[in-house]
Design goal:
CATH architecture of one domain in chain A: Up-down Bundle
Helix content of chain A: 55-70%
Family (chains A, B): Belongs to the acyl-CoA dehydrogenase family.
Number of strands of chain A: 11
GO molecular function, one term (chains A, B): flavin adenine dinucleotide binding
Shape of chain A: globular
EC number (chains A, B): 1.3.99.41
Cofactor (chains A, B): FAD
Keywords (chains A, B): FAD, Flavoprotein, Oxidoreductase
Structural class of chain A: alpha+beta
Largest interface: A-B, 95 and 96 residues
Oligomer: homodimer
CATH class of one domain in chain A: Mainly Alpha
């Protein structure tokens, strides 16, 4: 059951959902013509179908491991990385001055999603490297950029992100790693970091770690944290990998899924590093990387959903059972319901991710503050809905397989196990929801309101031709607006936080309906119209219950004392 | 983080939710006094806490395996089984004439749930044996009963259920296993069966297989199927295990979870068997076992939910992170929301399972047709909601753990992986939902309507003291009634089937609210009142969206042709 890159979906959504033509009309992205986009998607699709998809199972069966201190990756992963690197996919949105292709994030998001569908474990390696590229582009000195960026964009060197410590997870400010100036412009970094994705590998010439640590005069909390670039091998005078730095992989975690991706405990023992950004300004630099990664992780969820959907569909079309017209289970109403839900939610999540990326592109191309706030608003929504869709669709994918779904050989279970972490890393989904109702609403809900205006205006226009679909979208949006106003009015932040996740889910449901409506208008009576009709009739109505929960406030969730939770 | 048996929950629900006093007032169950119930729960709780819970991780890390044709179970499982057997827990609802304790299924359901929470993999062994005991009690000859039942109730022999074949899963009628009369009253059974839970073990003296097969004159489909008891070792003239029968375990599946439970491919090569029930009447006999197993599997879901909840709660109470009053994550509103949802849903699912068991007990004790139809109605709802609650709560349990949740050492992932199969086996949740809207509504919705009347009457009475909780319950029930009437009115069964699962979920939501309301009334202002308030305010409202989806009909889900699913 091979993976097929859903290229027509991307091209359709570029055109009809996220106005890619506006992006291509900017000077910055003027090279992203339809032809270029089409060629890029086709080429990336080939890579995913032919090179990456065959690595999905081997990575699961033969996990990355540490052998006498040397990290060994799964069979075939080195070749997979090489193909990704040589295709230029690591640096596809990188600055052309340093060897990148300078293409829009919208396009990169589509490509990254395809790679995630084909082989999530391996895709995480270029994704982390892309995040580091963006952080260095924005915050590193010209010397660091000149040395590191070309290597990373070419996929010769890979990148990682070192935030978490045992006592400092979601609360990054609690970290204790230290850095001291060496007096020559470099720093000595010491500390232990955990949950470091692709903390090492055996296929890149060098591994570049971005490490958060505290300088001696750094205040406690996030305001005293600085960011350092700490390479595995110290570049020699020619910029080639030289002697080993004072750091090592202590161990590799035994995880529920994503076995092909080594999750490392890293030890830095006075490792030499270079400051990125300002002293004590590490969080700002790290946020660049984290926002990039959040977009990427949402896309991982959508990719896993697509992979799980295709896998389940192939099974349903082949599995003979019961007396149906085709003789296969695809004719059962409940199997149809599952497949329709999988496909409709995947399309909705995909459109939201692409809209998120498109807002980033427009912000970067125009500097427009409205696009920046749109991108900021969509980031937590896309991360959560993308990853929840990955979980839900892969769960349903297992169900479509019946008993075979629980047997590892079928491959359905791997999607389910692998994608589970996406709801956790790069800021748990709960943290994302808090970000949405707090930081992203410090504008009094203006950015949200502007988006809701657009959705309602669009629904108003659509009413003329598709009233039965446009009506429910308008009404759901109006309800969402009321809850948004309620959220903004809460000065007790716990009232917002207690309903943050259901609120975010409702927001995503409505956004998904908006893109489905656009999709339906572009293809009246066609398959995408029918998919949109199912989404709006059957899945959108979930918003109502979610909004009730969103507005329920903190009293109920804090009703029990900690002791009363123990029955 | 040890498991603690939630005995006070069971005692509370027995008293206030499912009217256990009515059961104890029947002649059949007159021995089930409060004291006996309390002693049984305490003793079972001890077994679960001290013997079974320590076997949870070892079973995962060291799966059951086949070595040179011999099935080896995980370390400690043999002792675990022995403790279960010697405690009399296998036969606790069995007929006292054959050595059982004759206790109500309500009590057995509570005990089985505790065992599931402590160690799901091992618990499946006595659960399968209990199902066989019930099937033999109802359908086997006196000779078979006298020989087999005492051994099984004492846990000396174990039992399995052999339905599925590679081409016959949900469509049992497609099976091809054959049986031929030997002329001496016995039969020769030949065929291959797959997905046989606990198909063999190394701790019981004998393993008794109930096997569905077709006699030479059996018509195609389910009406030509007969049931045979096929022991691993043929009993000698004294009833002791003698020579090996012609059957074997071909292989053990490699599964996503439940590693301690061997899922076997079984080969029967003219194995000697004895007819159970009438010729060609195998499905009727098997249904006895399946209905028992469905109740049991729903309880497995609730047990896994309880285990995952306790595990996550312990973590949340200990994990220091962020600036909160206690310094731990339990004070974060989103963590509270997760814990409240886990606990509230687990209580709702537990009450539904106990109500299902109570209806079975009342039906058995009184022969009353209304109790029989109540039990039949609740069985698919309990199976689905119990197992979905297991999935959802264990998913949330992983989330509460943050990054640690994805690391196997934390134990959170195991609950998530193990419980996944419960939504699949013993009739997939989709099959259960079809059963609810088809077979269980052949009475024109009368049984459902009677239950909804009771819920509304109760809400009416509760309105006097708790209007803010009773009102929403009444309204939700009324909406559910309307959709129920819509369901019954659909002559095109695909209209029912397309919305069957969301309908079932909505039904469970309302039922859960009913038991929470009872619970609140029994403890006004107390912890259970607060839990009920959260459930009714925050979780119950989900029903509205589900009912819209339930009534959406088949046109949308069949909107796409099979080809159009392939994008």
């Amino acid at each position: 059951m091979p993976y097929r890159a859903p290229i027509s979906d991307y091209e359709f959504l570029f055109r009809h959902a996220v106005n890619f033509d506006k992006i291509a009309a900017t000077e910055k992205f003027s090279e992203a013509s339809d032809d270029v986009v089409s060629a890029i998607l086709t080429e990336a699709g080939k890579l995913c179908e032919e090179v990456m998809a065959p690595l999905q199972r081997p990575g699961d069966l033969e996990p990355a491991r540490l052998e006498n201190g040397v990290l060994r990756t799964s069979t075939g992963y080195a070749d997979g990385w090489k193909a990704i690197a040589e295709g230029g996919w690591v640096g596809m949105s990188g600055d052309p001055e340093y060897g990148g292709m300078g293409l829009p994030m919208t396009l990169t998001t589509a490509v990254n999603e395809m790679m995630s569908a084909a082989c999530l474990s391996l895709q995480l390696a270029p994704l982390m490297t892309q995040g580091q590229i963006e952080a260095l582009e924005h915050h590193a000195s010209d010397e660091l950029k000149a040395l590191y960026l070309p290597k990373m964009m070419a996929g010769e060197w890979s990148g990682t992100m070192n935030l978490t410590e045992p006592q400092a997870g979601s609360d990054v400010g609690a970290l204790t790693s230290k850095a001291e100036a060496n007096g020559d412009g470099t720093f000595s970094v010491t500390g232990q970091k955990i949950f470091i994705s692709w903390g090492d590998n055996d296929f890149a010439e060098n591994v570049c770690h971005l490490v958060l640590a505290r300088l001696p005069d750094g205040v406690p909390g996030t305001k005293g944290i600085s960011l350092f670039l700490v390479p595995k091998l110290l570049p020699d005078e020619n910029g080639n990998p030289g002697v080993a730095n004072d750091l090592k992989v202590v161990s590799v975690e035994h995880k529920m899924g994503l076995h092909g991706s080594p999750t490392c405990v890293m030890q830095f023992d006075g490792a030499k590093g270079w400051l990125v950004g300002k002293e004590h300004g590490g969080m700002a630099a790290m946020f660049t990387m984290m926002n990039n990664a959040r977009l990427g992780v949402g896309g991982q969820g959508v990719g896993a959903a697509e992979g799980a959907y295709q896998h389940a569909l192939a099974y349903a079309l082949e599995r003979k059972q019961g007396k149906t017209p085709s003789g296969t289970i695809v004719d059962h109403a409940d199997v149809r319901r599952m497949l329709m839900s999988m496909r409709a939610d995947t399309l909705a999540a995909r459109a939201i991710m692409l809209a998120n990326a498109a807002a980033i592109d427009m912000a970067n191309a125009t500097g427009d503050a409205d696009w920046m706030s749109r991108a900021a608003l969509l980031t937590p929504i896309g991360k959560v809905f993308g990853t929840e869709t990955g979980m839900r669709v892969s769960e349903t994918g297992v169900q479509v397989h019946g008993g075979m779904g629980f047997i590892e050989e079928s491959g359905a279970a791997q999607y389910y196990r692998d994608v589970r972490v996406t709801a956790i890393y790069e800021g748990t989904n709960g943290i994302q929801a808090m970000d949405l109702v707090a930081r992203k609403m410090m504008d009094g809900g203006e950015a949200a309101s502007r988006l809701l205006d657009e959705i309602e205006d669009h629904a108003e226009q659509a009413r003329a031709t598709m009233p039965e679909l446009a009506g429910p979208v308008w009404e759901a949006t109006e309800s969402l607006r009321e809850t948004t106003e309620w959220m903004v009015a809460q000065s007790d932040m716990n009232n917002r936080f207690a309903g943050a996740l259901p609120y975010l889910h409702a927001f995503a449901r409505v956004l998904g309906a908006h893109y489905h409506l656009k999709s339906a208008l572009a293809e009246p009576g066609g398959p995408r119209f029918k998919l949109a009709r199912y989404y709006i009739n059957a899945l959108l109505p979930e918003y109502a219950g979610l909004l009730v929960q969103a507005q329920n406030g903190a009293d109920d969730v804090f009703g029990l004392s900690a002791e009363e939770f123990v029955s």
